[in-house]
């Protein structure tokens, strides 16, 4: 059924939304921690590189020298660079990525213990080099590195996390479809049995009710020897039988509509169908002094089952007439918007409270005692109307204001003709 398909899709969507939230939270947490660790590790490597390079400097005859054989295993020439300066800021030696080399002289007002970042997103660290007894500064080592390496590593991490999340969602979606189907099967089976019971019970009740009605009608037709109080009781029985018959017919209609496959549909002239219903209900409207207004657009066609569509709009018109007080107005208006037809059934009745609108299409639901007293029906009219609209690929909605009235809008796909 369509309703179970919607529930299944809703369950699957909820499952995927929760899973996406969990995976995204996990991915964000991993990225934050990884970024912090990578940045800290990058800074430590830069400091270690500067310390290692400082060991290659020595001072001879008032001149700063660099060992001829420099062993810098930690230096990555693809994104790092080293520079040796004397105490005057003159460049002595440089190694590594040329783009990372700083132009001498280097800034003197710096924090020696802090890794600096310039506007080109280069990190650099200046380490003063002392003589052998640590009493005099003989020069400086500048270790620098580009943050492009960190950014490229983070991009790879993002791609890995994104790909992993995508793959997880694909497999979770496939498994979610299977699991939601498995979960819905017992519910669908229970509902199918309940629906079958409703159809069977409604069908079986028709016979006894008709027998009761026939016998009561015969008794009322020949009232000789019957007390007047008995006649009143039999009339009450007749009224109750009619109400129960209406209820069983509505239940049977719903059960059959939801169970049996759709009949072959044909083009239906909406103007002709509504015009016939208006002629049918005009006497009832005049009797209650209700102004029944009709504004029908010509040449509106849709593919459908005429009997069901007739039931749909007759239920809405009956509903509008029941809840409209004498002297009120009921208006039926049609229009076409793109590929859809719209039918508005508006009344100046008692209206529906905002908190009750979401229940209006539930079976056997009535908003209050006033509405229940006015109807005398089975409480299934609007539920039947909604089922028929959905079976035709359309929808039905309502807007209402207490004491002002209600407007039911039916939206159905048009037939190009």
Descriptive tags:
417 residues, five-stranded mixed beta sheet, 14 strands, Heat Shock Protein 90, alpha+beta, five-stranded antiparallel beta sheet, single chain, Helix Hairpins
Helix/strand class: alpha+beta
How large a portion of the residues is in β-strands, by DSSP E?
Answer: 15-25%
Q: Given this structure, which CATH class of the largest domain is correct?
A: Alpha Beta
Total helices: the number is 7
Alpha-carbon distance between the two ends: 30 Å
* CATH evolutionary superfamily of the largest domain: Histidine kinase-like ATPase, C-terminal domain
Helix content: 40-55%
Main β-sheet description? 5 strands, antiparallel
CATH architecture label of the largest domain: 2-Layer Sandwich
Characterise this structure:
The structure is a single chain. The protein is α+β, with helices and mostly antiparallel strands and 417 residues long. The chain has helices at 2-54, 148-221, 228-259, 270-287, 306-322, 369-375, 381-391; strands at 57-60, 63-66, 80-86, 91-96, 116-117, 122-130, 137-146, 266-269, 291-295, 301-304, 329-337, 340-347, 395-401, 405-413. The strands form four sheets. A five-stranded antiparallel beta sheet has the order 4-3-7-6-5. Strands 9-11-12-14-13 form a five-stranded mixed beta sheet, covered by helices on one side. Strands 1-2 form a two-stranded antiparallel ribbon. α5 (306-322) packs antiparallel against α7. It starts with a helix and ends with a strand. The model is unreliable at 369-375 (pLDDT under 50).
């Amino acid at each position: 059924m369509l309703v179970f398909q919607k529930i299944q899709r809703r369950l699957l969507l909820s499952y995927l939304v929760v899973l996406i939230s969990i995976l995204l939270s996990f991915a964000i947490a991993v990225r934050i921690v990884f970024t912090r660790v990578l940045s800290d590790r990058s800074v430590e490597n830069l400091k270690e590189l500067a310390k290692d390079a400082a060991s290659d400097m020595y001072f001879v005859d008032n001149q700063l020298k660099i060992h001829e054989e420099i062993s810098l295993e930690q230096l990555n020439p693809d994104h790092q660079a080293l520079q040796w300066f004397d105490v005057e800021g003159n460049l002595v030696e440089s190694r590594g990525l040329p783009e990372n080399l700083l132009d001498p002289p280097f800034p003197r007002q710096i924090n020696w213990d802090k890794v600096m970042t310039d506007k080109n997103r280069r990190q650099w660290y200046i380490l003063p080099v002392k003589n052998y007894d640590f009493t005099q500064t003989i020069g400086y080592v500048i270790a620098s590195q580009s943050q492009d390496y960190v950014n490229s590593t983070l991009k790879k991490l993002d791609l890995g996390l994104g790909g992993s999340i995508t793959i997880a969602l694909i497999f979770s979606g496939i498994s979610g479809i299977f699991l939601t189907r498995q979960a819905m099967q017992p519910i669908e089976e229970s509902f199918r049995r309940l629906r079958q019971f409703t159809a069977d019970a409604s069908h079986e009740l028709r016979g006894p009710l008709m027998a009761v009605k026939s016998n009561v009608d015969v008794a009322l037709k020949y009232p000789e020897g019957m007390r007047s109080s008995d006649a009143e009781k039999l009339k009450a029985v007749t009224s109750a039988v009619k109400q129960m018959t209406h209820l069983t017919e509505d239940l049977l209609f719903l059960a059959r509509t939801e169970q049996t496959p759709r009949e072959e549909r044909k083009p239906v002239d909406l103007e002709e169908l509504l015009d016939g219903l208006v002629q049918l209900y005009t006497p009832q409207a005049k009797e209650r002094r209700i102004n029944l207004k009709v504004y029908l657009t010509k040449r509106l066609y849709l593919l459908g089952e005429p009997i069901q569509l007739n039931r749909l709009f007759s239920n809405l018109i009956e509903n509008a007439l029941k809840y409209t007080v004498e002297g009120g107005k009921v208006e039926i208006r049609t229009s076409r918007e793109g590929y859809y037809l719209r039918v508005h059934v508006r009344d100046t009745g008692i209206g529906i409270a905002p908190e009750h609108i979401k229940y209006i299409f539930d079976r056997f639901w009535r908003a209050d005692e006033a509405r229940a007293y006015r109807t005398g029906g089975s409480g299934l009219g609007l539920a039947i109307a909604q089922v028929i609209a959905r079976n035709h690929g359309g929808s039905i909605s309502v807007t209402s204001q207490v004491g002002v009235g209600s407007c039911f809008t039916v939206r159905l796909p048009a037939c190009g003709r």
